Known about the structure:
The complex is a heterodimer.
Chain A: E1 11-15, H1 20-31, E2 37-40, H2 51-56, E3 64-67, E4 70-72, H3 75-86, H4 94-124, H5 130-151, H6 164-173, H7 187-197, H8 205-212
Parallel strand pairs in A: 1-2
Antiparallel strand pairs in A: 1-3, 3-4
Helix pairs in contact in A: 1-3, 1-6, 4-5, 4-6, 5-7
Chain B: E1 7-11, H1 16-27, E2 32-36, H2 47-52, E3 60-63, E4 66-68, H3 71-82, H4 90-119, H5 126-148, H6 159-168, H7 182-192, H8 200-203
Parallel strand pairs in B: 1-2
Antiparallel strand pairs in B: 1-3, 3-4
Helix pairs in contact in B: 1-3, 1-6, 4-5, 4-6, 5-7
Amino acid sequence: MSDLPDFATPIEIVGQKQSITTHKVALMLAMTETPFSFRVIDLLAGAQKSADYEELNPFGRVPTFIQGDLVLRQSAVILRYLARRTGQYGYDGEAEEYEVENWFGFAYDYFSFGLARVRYINRFMGGEPQHMKDYFRPNTLRGLELIERHLAGHEWLALGRPSLAEFVCHPLVSVWRDAELDIADYPATAAWLERFQALPGWTEPEAMLAGMSGG
Amino acid sequence: MTDNLSYALYGHPRSGNAYKTALMLSLTGTPYEFEAVDLMARTNLEAGYLEINPLGKVPVLRHGDLLLRQSHDTLRYLVEQTGKFGPDSWREEARVGDWIGFAVDFLSYGLARLRFELLFGNGPGPVFDYFKITADRGLGIIEPHLADNEWLACGRPTIADIAVFPVMSFLADAGYDVDDFPAIAAWKERFQALPGFAWQLELMPIENWPPA
């Protein structure tokens, strides 16, 4: 595909410092040493419904990735794009591609639709409604059981090296405290969290984004 | 190369995600064997199936020894294999990606949950109400988009339409009045007129379904 912008074109991320999907993209940029600027949209204040943002992202979601006239609105698409452009954390060939892609779906099914919902209710909705936290609890625990079992036998999720699978899952699992979990119950997962955090360029994403947006 | 190997689809007509893969196979004219996984009898949680998908979910698409376990991956894979219904550029991929994301954010985690609660869950109640907020927002995005666009992305049918159609075909089961969404209804008719279109029961026939 030949319509790619010059990768030296400045990259802007429009997002929210507390948003896990924004964290995924920000970490990929930081860990591939790709310069970018960060613009805050305050989702909680409803600013994403403003006319300007609606034009940029009709789905009212974050983050939005802008490089020249290329606008990407889904973290999975952004991560694939960055892997391709930087040559880092991607996959080589069909078999590797679908090993990695499996984890995108896993992250949606068990963590976006589980742990991340519980964390959102706790952090942004004052802990209520409790019945929805109860609703998401079994899926959260099942997701952690599955990833723990896998990581007990694997250093990294999809390949024998860190890949996009890590960028999709790590920012979700790393908010375990806000999801009423104790990571000590999942020792292989805890070790994997630390391995990822020891990679060059990793930094706590919420603090990084707060620093880039003046607090 | 995997070109001459046969395809097998593991699924159930209840599953909107399995229907996405079945539609893509049918619309691309790709022959496949259907392996029924009886979700109602919980066959998906038995050892034989867990070897195919440790998560116990449908669909799985088998091509040779490659197993694809996420419906949207099966769509992208079949684009690569058939050259049909895919994006032609990064700009197109970005717009197709918008609607694949929509299918996850607003449909799988919104509208599809409403149908599940009404047909297989607890019926109307607080869980239904929670997901209805997301489902309403999603319908508020797609209906005006389809009033202005014949297809979801790229000005032609793509895997974006295939990813969204199954849940839209369940609109009434999710408690909505289809007459309230004329642009969606017109798009569904266009989609149903595509060569190779078929309903889930034709693509994934299984005994005892639908329940009498």
